[in-house]
Structure prediction request, 503 residues.
Amino acid sequence: MTGTGKDLRGGAAGADPRRWVALSVLAAMQFMLIMDITVVNVALPDIQSGLDFSPGGLAWVVNAYVLVAGGFLLLGGRLADMFGRRRVFMAGVLVFGLSSAACGAATGSGMLVGSRFVQGLGEALAGPAALGLIPVLFPDRGERMKALGLWGGLSAVAGAVGSVVGGVVTDLVSWRWIFFVNIPIAILALVVVPRVMPESRMARESRRLDAVGAVTATGGLVAVVYGLLQAAEHPWGSGHVLLPLLGGVALLVSMVVWESRTPDPMIPLRFFANRTRVTTNVVSVAIFAAFFTYMFLFTLYTQQVHGYSPMETGLAYIPLTVTAFAGAGVSTVLMPRIGVKAVMAVAFFGAAVALFVAAGGLAPDASFVGGFLPGLILFGFFNGLAYPALINGALHEVTGQDSGLASGVQTAMQQTGAALGLATLVPFAFRHVADHVATGTLPQVARTDGYALAFRVGAAALAVAAVAVVVLLEKVSARMRDPLAEAAEAATGEVAVGPGAAR
Prediction:
């Protein structure tokens, strides 16, 4: 059943209020997906003792999720475009919910790591499909900017909330419940989404999947992310790092060559001709690298240098969580007025300054209020300000044909940024600490100096990204031409199926 413009837009004469209900459910699920990246960090010591993990094996509780999610997000986004965004979202939610239950019930280290691999696959399917549904549900640019602002704001908050929830739940109940809490949200999504959301997919003559493009793109991303993760434990010149990185790059180059020649590409290269989308995705790597480095090292710092418990560490992130939510709200209000470019530039410059402030607040005898709090407040606010703008920039002038692909690319860049930060800035800090401890520096002082230095390097990267935004990004506002709305009105380039017809 082919839908009309009313299916896509909720009706020109009377907007369908179900689209906001649908957005609420999608956003709640995305909140859980993002939170699951950081929720385990504070709980790692308890997980290690509970399941007898080796130190090297413990890293894979985090790495397994990042590797599969980062590698398969691009494919997941394109599968959603081709075979139905709602269908792929539901499949991803089911996979994520079942694997969350398996994580919580794990009886050994192998079961937990294996379940985390499957969880990453659930995100790779559900995340891009959910974000790809928003341009279809909200083709009006002004309304869509608000919806994407809410989406980006919740994503910013979710990363910080993960640490709060992880610390509190681990101390008060058990680390297993950081996974069990995902299950009710997954059930809610599975029950509600079919009732409030139409199916949508790209219009195409052939239903054949471009197998070569799928294998080379996915294999290349998996190899690159794996190489970055290995760099956290091995020197950059070792075969553990170079072989997967070079192999991944070779596969991605092969993908580009193939996609430029095949008549029915999985990833059409025309998608990457838009300067704003490309710039946004590139700078996303920088801010996610800085954010996850900050979260990882600040967690270690509070516990190693100041003796915080998991709950105290989690509670320490509350100011960052609150200001991230405030920043996201400000971003959503400002974008229609001053444009995405201006908001993004201010956010990146502000985040760079915030990391410098955070680095200056680290000291072995620092207090929470006088030392940590200014950095938490500023960095939280400017990250919250950035994320809604990043989501809008990544979906700039995306048509109904490519909304899943655009979502997959943006989410893959987020995961790649997280892996890059953990592979570069974190080992850089650790080596600085080890070198200074070897020369007789007290461990608390060495850790303080090393972690602060990593923050300053991250701040410099954010400043460079801010310059790139100012120079390369086009002006994006709610009043610009909207190809998706035009496509919906012309009933071309998109197939929408009403909820009843898809059941």
